[in-house]
């Protein structure tokens, strides 16, 4: 039996462009697919892929070119033609790594080691944020909503200026956070009175209702509560949303996840995990009081945990997860009918495997190759090759140091390691060939270095060590290696 579907409100898909930014042609294809899946809008987090200019030009990516102004505008036109709105997301407090990593911006950090958090006491910081927003808003003429981030403001209150401020009576870290966010939100409303302002909620979760009421944020912002876990606590989440509503912030958002929230280095998403997350969010929505005006849900797809972390699951391999999550919201659960819809939309034969680990059933050749390569890389025989009986028994460090190596068994070890290497290299070449069609060359290179090189490098070293050792035991040209 199906539960109630997602109530009225928008379904936004989050495009996190701070890693593996899709080529423009692929972006258009994604927007077309999102439209077919019933998506109402895009929550676009550009970071360094936005074409900042003037003094902010240094914020643009260097690994690959940022999108051009024309590409940003055409992406919005493409979305608009499909009935989707575009909501830009610009971080204004925490997670500003892509800004504060640059030497000219170092003085604007809250603390030197924390690259992501802006010093809330510097007027230059507010001016910087407002200039970033000005450029983004100017290039989104049709947008009526803006997400200002403000999540995970790590080390807030630890800077020297903050410590001095906090030493005054009545000054708290909570107030420090609220002061900055309120200042930014008020400046946005002055510049663009029509703009709806959305922000992440996590820094406000521990605040009392009275603190929120007195913050100045009531009527200025719409909090977006995020929780990406498959066992989301329904009662706690409902209580939080009701607290915000009771404080006067009745216009609220939810945020779930279809990828990028399992582990910082996950390669292939677990569809079941993300479907379970959405099932829990459906329970939350059904339990809310009528006073809560749920504006919608943002289905996030993180590409990195932050600007300086490794790549999470790439978009192409997460599309079945996204489709499954959207159909879950529409049907109340991932029913047989919902699975059929996913298979139909993605052009795949069945969703039986989609609900587990995507093995063998994917929407693109690259997705199939990615899953196959990931399975090989995580094979115990390959990943833990140095733990096998022959290697540990006849080619240990003790044997290598004393050149006490059996040429016959060394040949067997070399043969097996070489076979694994060749198989991996062939698969990697196929993955790279397909990957650069959808993403920049730099993405393919980073992905391979992060996921493949740590596995192939030991195998390569083993083959070289065996050649060196065996050559000293028996003339190398007499061995069939």
TrEMBL record:
One Pfam entry name: Glyco_hydro_20
Span of the signal peptide: none
The EC number(s) this enzyme carries: 3.2.1.52
Xref: InterPro entries: GH (IPR017853), Glyco_hydro_20_cat (IPR015883), HEXDC-like (IPR038901)
Classification via CDD domains: GH20_GcnA-like (cd06565)
Domain Glycoside hydrolase family 20 catalytic: 64-208
Keywords, sorted A to Z: Hydrolase
Catalyzed chemical reaction(s): Hydrolysis of terminal non-reducing N-acetyl-D-hexosamine residues in N-acetyl-beta-D-hexosaminides
GO molecular function annotations of the record: beta-N-acetylhexosaminidase activity
Top-level taxon of origin: Eukaryota
Any one of the GO BP annotations: carbohydrate metabolic process
Annotated family: Belongs to the glycosyl hydrolase 20 family.
Protein known as: beta-N-acetylhexosaminidase
Organism per entry: Cyclopterus lumpus (Lumpsucker)
